[in-house]
Amino acid sequence: MRLNYLAYALGLTLIYIGLVILIPVIVALVYGELGSILPFLTASVISMLLGAGLRKTVPDTLENLNDIKKAEALFTVALSWIIFGLVAAIPYLFYGLSPINALFESISGITTTGATILTHYDYPHAFFFWRSFTQWLGGLGIIVLFIAILPQFAVAGRQMFFAEAPGPTEDKFTPRIRNTASALWKIYAGLTILEIILLVFAGMPAFDAVCNSLSTLSAGGFSPHAESIMGYHSNHITWIVLIFMFLAGASFNLQYKVVAQKNPLLLFKNEEFRTYFLLVILMAVLITASLHFHNFTDALFQVISITTSSGFASVDFEKWDYTSKLILFIVMFMGSCASSAGGGVKIARWLVVFKSMKSELVRILHPNAIVNIKIDNKTIVPEVARQIIVFVFFYILIFAVTAVIMSILEQNTAVGLTGAISSLGNIGPGVAVSTGPMGNFDSMHTASKFIFIVNMLVGRLELIPFLVLLQRDFWTLKD
């Protein structure tokens, strides 16, 4: 691992993060909130100074990252997210949040988890815009954004792109990875703008429409309203957010192909999307039946919100019956589609896992049979299938260990179980009373908050970069 390459990449990232942090200053000026300028200006200056300092340590001979190695890309991405979370927490300190709460809110934002420690919502517009904007940046990934706009990442982008958004396969649909990143951001930004327009027409205040849209397409869930989407008391708004949450959980690669080829039927030709769609409907129907066939809209909204890891609420589902909440807990393990803004294991991985189980059963009955695992008629090579199974194993292991620890710390099994999966899956609210859709995580033990923070980061980067950091060979340093 070459320190010069790490310093160069992190220096660039910090400088441009510093520029991004200045955007809430514009919001503060628009609403005359002069007191909100200093928090973001301070964070911006700190970020750019750190970035410039790192760049000065790099020799002039290093002008790009063209030959960056996979291990270096993994470490750069992991460290970029940690640093981004630390810098993004700085403005919250100016609003009275403790350091651990500021970091919790920041990491929850950039990882699009949406869990909050806020006990009240008496904050300026710039504060709420920053919460939602960090989610929007984290939805597709800050590195993917920089790949799309910065020439320095043009060649090295491939390694960093798949390090930040690892999936079952390397799915790029243009010859150049920079074009792929750019296309993804166009779809992402276009859907965000469309939702803003629709929400304004549905009667939502313009500022709220912007914040909620930023949080919807990122599958984040932060809302400027204390009661989330429920607080707007509008069925039209509920359905608009529901539809865009669903799209946020679908593959943006697939959506790009649909737009490019002008063929919506491509969605249902994709096995992962079909499974995603059918599971959402099935779980919503089961919850509706459990609720005695009432509130199908709210049942569908909450299933989509949780499986996409959005975390919005159209109803206080903590008041639902035990069966309905149990179904929602199961939904927490589903995840969204690969190459989406959503979190969790991802439907594609579950397809591979269950097809692998089926193939092993066939081999038991027919030892000489050659059974290939296929998705969309494409064979999944054994190495990829094995990696996916290992991924799911580690995912469940991390969930189990953190659930036990948090249950002990909080002396509450429900909080421990739902807190572990909601943080690891970047979901946000749990199904326990204190951490439900109308609750917050402020009262949690400090150690529990730290575990939550680590889980959120591990879940957002889908384990791989962090598991690699545990390997001894990874820490062999070079100039």
Summarize the structure in words.
Residues 154-164 have low confidence and may be disordered. The chain contains 20 helices and 2 strands. The longest helix has 29 residues, at 382-410. It is mostly helical and 479 residues long. The radius of gyration is 22 Å and the shape is globular. Strand 1 and strand 2 (378-379) form a beta hairpin.
What is the residue-mean pLDDT, rounded to a whole number? 85
Q: Mind summarizing the main beta sheet?
A: 2 strands, antiparallel
* Proportion of residues in extended strands: under 5%
Shape: globular
Low-confidence stretches: 154-164
Helicity level, as a percent range? 55-70%
Please give the number of β-strands.
2
Backbone CA Rg = 22 Å
Q: Helix segment count?
A: 20
Q: Tell me the span between the first and last alpha carbons.
A: 8 Å
Class inferred from helices and paired strands: mainly alpha
Order of helices and strands: HHHHHHHHHHHHHHHHEEHHHH
